[in-house]
Design a protein that fits this description.
This protein is an alpha/beta fold. It contains 11 helices and 8 strands.
């Protein structure tokens, strides 16, 4: 089985619609794909409606979190999307994305970059507006060569010249909320130092004690040394190890199935979840 547990659609900051995403996942030879848009579940219905036969969909989300001033992302799988407390927290995070992005546009204008709010909204389309949309605007204007190049201290990285804070969930609260909604939690790309400061291993240990289920290790932002170090930590803490593409369509260079999760780990994730269940493809439309 080929299992990719981290992808994004136009419901957040990917360039594939949810329907295109699942069709492309099947074409890439995947058996299981997780839809994990940022702080939203809006893509579920379209993805399920288009799900090809032979492909299983894992519903999820990537939750925006912050600990000790460090931004981090928490992958949440197979939770009840209507559970009130978790739904309210996701909406709080999403609602803060608009003023945050507007603030980044204002800072860029102050730096002499002629990006406009209308341009960012056009790029975001129906998705939850975020930094990748602002980064794409910088690419369109020729300010940077790629979206990745926009996530530097010179521009949009945490603490960068055009960075603006937003509401982000405490990771311990995120773990509690996801667990209460019947879901499973995995710390996304914990060693992605190119994105800014990373969470110390001591904090990961505290999260494990609080109920964190796993860590995403096989990821494009982790070099071999980082993967080896994180595998040792995961073994020590009894955490599941996942691998994923973090696919965003054409917005990033990664491809579906570039990194995958062991079927036994996937099986354990599904066994732990009680809020929702994987959806087998029925042919789609």
């Amino acid at each position: 089985m080929r299992i990719d547990l981290h992808t994004h659609s136009t419901a957040s900051d990917g360039t594939d619609t949810p329907a295109e995403l699942v069709r492309n996942a099947a074409a890439a030879g995947l058996d299981v794909v997780a839809l994990t848009d940022h702080d939203t579940t809006r893509g579920y219905a379209e993805a399920i409606g288009a799900l090809p036969e032979g492909l299983t969909l894992v519903t999820g989300a990537e939750l925006s979190c912050r600990i000790d001033g460090i931004s981090m992302h928490m992958l949440a799988y197979l939770f009840d999307p209507e559970e009130p407390a978790l739904l309210a927290e996701r909406e709080l995070v999403r609602d803060d994305r608009v003023p945050r992005a507007q603030g980044m546009v204002a800072k860029l204008n102050g730096l002499g970059v002629p990006v406009t709010w209308e341009q960012v909204l056009r790029i975001a389309g129906d998705g939850s507006v975020g930094r990748p949309h602002v980064a794409t605007a910088l690419v369109e204007l020729g300010v940077v060569a790629s979206v990745t190049d926009a996530f530097t201290p010179e521009w949009l990285a945490d603490g960068g010249r055009a960075f603006v804070d937003k509401h982000e969930t405490d990771p311990f609260e995120a773990i509690r909320l996801v667990k209460a909604a019947g879901g499973v939690t995995v710390f996304a790309h914990p060693g992605a130092s190119k994105r800014g400061r990373t969470v110390p291993e001591s904090a990961i240990a505290e999260m494990a004690a609080a109920g964190l289920d796993g860590v995403e290790i096989d990821h494009m932002d982790h070099d071999p040394e980082t993967r080896a170090r994180l595998r040792g930590l995961a073994k020590e803490l009894g955490l599941l190890v996942t691998g994923s593409s973090d696919y965003h369509g054409s917005r990033k260079t990664c491809v579906l199935g570039e990194y995958v999760t062991d079927p036994e780990v996937y099986g354990e994730i599904t066994r732990r979840a009680t809020g929702a269940f994987p959806v087998p493809g029925a042919g789609g439309v």
